[in-house]
Specification:
single chain, 382 residues, alpha/beta, Beta-Lactamase, Rossmann fold, 2 domains, seven-stranded mixed beta sheet, six-stranded antiparallel beta sheet, 16 helices, globular, disordered N terminus
Length: 382
């Protein structure tokens, strides 16, 4: 057990042995847990009744050697984070997303929810500084996307794949280099952008606007140059984002899909069949790029141990636009794999490069690849 795990175990032990009458008054009892998580470079803290405090460090779950948390202890830890309105929303919806600040510890994003009838939480530790494309080890090709003045740039990947951090890095690069009016629509706001060369307004769903779709329609009347839509959750939001991208704005957003071809299908499937030809036409005209990413654990010998992004990039070339417009989605991946000169590469090609650079192992690449035959061919292994 590390010294930090030992500290965390002691903290939980103290919590377990605090009288119930005293626990309710300890509104900052969560802080020592968060402090230990920050010291241990954890990305997440999981709090579930019947389980010990669990940290995610470099993508791996580490349970603290301490007694399991009780349902009552979790309520004492978590409910002080909430306003009266948030408490009511949690009880009504049985789930709640929020961000909060804890002094010098920084900002955190939390999802509170119920499981087996008891309160639980997943807390994400947010970096103190807005990351850069370089600090995230992302391909330099992403920097060129921030030079675009209009169109739609999509970040895709599963939950926890770093989409929000990548979007924040792209917005920060625009903020640092262009005199633009940037509007972000998020749920919740994770990274707070100070004005640099640009003016940045950040709109939070639930507090500043009732929905993503309504916010996108409203911001078109607010003279924006760049619009960040945190997530395209429904057809109404997708349609509004496509319209914004078509009418002279640069729109950045995210979807929960694994690769570029799936992204096109996911967008189309959000609409009735009768509307899909129109959406194909809009998407083929508005799309700039799709960037799919996942985080994979590095080798123990990597210069910076932790997680590295494996990234697939699809640029909306004339050929790709034609495939989208004519419904030949099954050919998209082939064009990506042969489009290196246009800045494109597949997820499996990205994993291969990470292996050759010594950043991840072959076993890790095989565990995270989508087409093992292509990966094996790229690595020339059997």
């Amino acid at each position: 057990m590390s010294v930090y795990e030992d500290d965390l175990s002691r903290i939980v032990h103290e919590l377990n042995h605090t009288a119930p009458s005293q626990q309710a008054a300890r509104q900052n009892s969560l802080d020592p847990l968060l402090q230990s998580a920050v010291k241990q470079s954890a990305s997440d803290v999981l709090l579930v009744a019947g389980s010990p405090v669990t940290l995610r460090v470099n993508g791996t779950l580490l349970a603290v050697a301490s007694p399991p948390l009780t349902a009552q202890e979790l309520r004492h830890l978590l409910l002080p984070l909430l306003t009266t309105e948030q408490t009511a929303e949690l009880e009504r919806s049985r789930a709640l997303d929020l961000c909060f600040v804890r002094g010098t510890l920084g900002r955190f994003r939390a999802n509170l929810h119920y499981q087996r009838g008891t309160l639980a939480a997943s807390i994400r530790v947010l970096p103190a500084q807005i990351p850069t494309i370089e600090s995230l080890h992302l391909p330099p090709a992403l920097a060129a996307l921030t030079d675009r003045r209009q169109g739609l740039i999509l970040l895709t990947g599963p939950t926890g794949s770093g989409k929000t951090s990548t979007l924040a890095a792209l917005i920060d690069r625009i903020n640092a280099n262009r005199r633009d009016h940037i509007l972000t629509i998020e749920d919740p706001i994770e990274y707070q952008h100070a004005n640099r060369k640009s003016i940045v307004e950040q709109i939070e769903v639930g507090r500043d606007t009732p929905s993503f779709a309504q916010a996108v329609r409203a911001v078109l009347r607010q003279n924006p140059d760049v619009i960040l839509v945190g997530e395209m959750r429904d057809s109404e939001t997708i349609a509004a984002a496509l319209t914004a991208a078509e009418t002279g704005h640069l729109v950045l957003s995210s979807l929960h899909t694994n690769d570029a071809a799936q992204t096109v299908s996911r967008i189309l499937d959000s609409f009735p069949t009768s509307n899909q030809p129109q959406i194909r036409q809009q998407l083929s005209l508005a799309l700039v790029a799709v960037v799919a990413q996942q985080l994979v654990p590095s080798t123990g010998n990597a210069a910076q141990p932790g997680l590295y992004p494996a990234v697939e990039i699809m640029m909306a070339t004339l050929a790709i636009r034609n495939l989208i417009r004519t419904g030949q989605d099954h050919q998209i991946r082939s064009h990506i794999s042969t489009g290196r000169r246009e800045g494109m590469f597949t997820m499996d090609q990205s994993l291969s490069e990470l292996v050759r650079a010594g950043r991840i192992t072959r076993e890790t690449a095989l565990a995270h690849c989508y087409h093992s035959d292509e990966l094996i061919s790229n690595l020339n292994i059997s």
